[in-house]
Amino acid sequence: MSKKTSKMKLSFKLALAFGAFILFVGGITTGKYVWRFIGGNVTDRADYLYIPTGSSYKDLLDIIKEQELLKDTASFTWAAEKMNFGKKIKPGKYRLSAGMSNRRLINMLKSGNQEPVKLYFQNIRLKESFVGMVSKKLEADSLSMSKLLDSTEFVQAYGFTPANVYTLFIPNSYEFYWNTDAKTFFTKMFENYEQFWNEERLAKAKKLNLSPKEVSILASIVDSEALVDREMPIIAGLYLNRLQRGIKLEADPTVIFASKDFSIRRVLNKHLRKESPYNTYIHTGLPPGPITMPSIAAIDAVLNAKNHDYIYMCAKEDFSGTHNFASNLSEHLTNAKRFQQALNDRNIKK
């Protein structure tokens, strides 16, 4: 073999070796490049990423770093730059899963594909308790919600007053995005309110000579009185009889609400004298607003109240949660005496 041929073979082997080296290095580089996109990078520190309204890309990075949501923040910022992410940050509540890749996370944030918040409420007595509960689920804080509901100008535009606006909220299960603000929440609740008060319910309310708000206010009293749902239409009929005859409602739950002492188990004369527009022992007619968030069952019980001649009711002495009903004072006093004696026997003084 000639020296020339040997040199050519050696050069060929060197070229092959160099080419293999280049491919090897290129493969490693490509692998690292791809891995920054598809490699698992999200930790198991949190189930959700919350991005507040108005957040910048820097704010997002600060949240990620502070909560240690990523194994490698540098690879995330590199991938974010390559994917043109960071100019517009969409607020919301985003579901995280351990091992999620940068590409999947960034695509979710870019599209604003956040997970809805499920909101369920019923039988919440006070408006302030309600807004406090909602603010724990949504970005809107309780202060901004309270200010809105207490704003005469704002609620009047929807046909409410600050006193009766609580009738707007129909107990049910709802879905919202976490970054919902107070005004949007109110608007969506109003849309649901209008759907709830359909033609059939409106017609029944009109037949009773009551507005939907008045129906809900009465329903809040019925709900507070009835521990057993089957009694709701009877109790509703009783209070409707009183309203139609111009008799004071004299509902103990309104007195308790007026006193703001919800530990009261026995309503005493001193409670009955409490001056408040909600005290139906003093004032004739309905109170200015609901004394609790009435259930749908209670609202429909008012709309479908039983026709009877009862105008009195008293809790049964067996403490079953049901009532004795009466159409005259004599019969009612007999029922009341039995219940008062039962309270005394159990040493229930207040």
Describe the structure.
With 350 residues, the chain is mainly alpha-helical. The chain has three domains: 64 residues, Endolytic murein transglycosylase (Dna Ligase, domain 1); 80 residues, no CATH class; 147 residues, no CATH class. It is built from 15 helices and six strands. The strands form three sheets. The chain has a two-stranded antiparallel sheet with strand order 1-2. Strands 3-4 form a two-stranded antiparallel sheet. The protein has a two-stranded antiparallel ribbon with strand order 5-6. Helix 10 packs across helix 11. The N and C termini lie far apart (118 Å). 29% of the residues are buried.
Instruction: Report the uncertain regions.
Output: 14-29
Mass-distribution shape? elongated
What class, by secondary structure content? mainly alpha
Number of helices: 15
Question: What is the H/E string?
Answer: HEHHEHEHHHEHHHHHHHEEH
The overall average pLDDT, rounded, is: 88
Largest sheet: 2 strands, antiparallel
Strand order of the largest sheet: 1-2
Distance between the termini: 118 Å
What radius of gyration results from the CA coordinates? 33 Å
Count the E strands. Answer: 6
Percent in strands: 5-15%
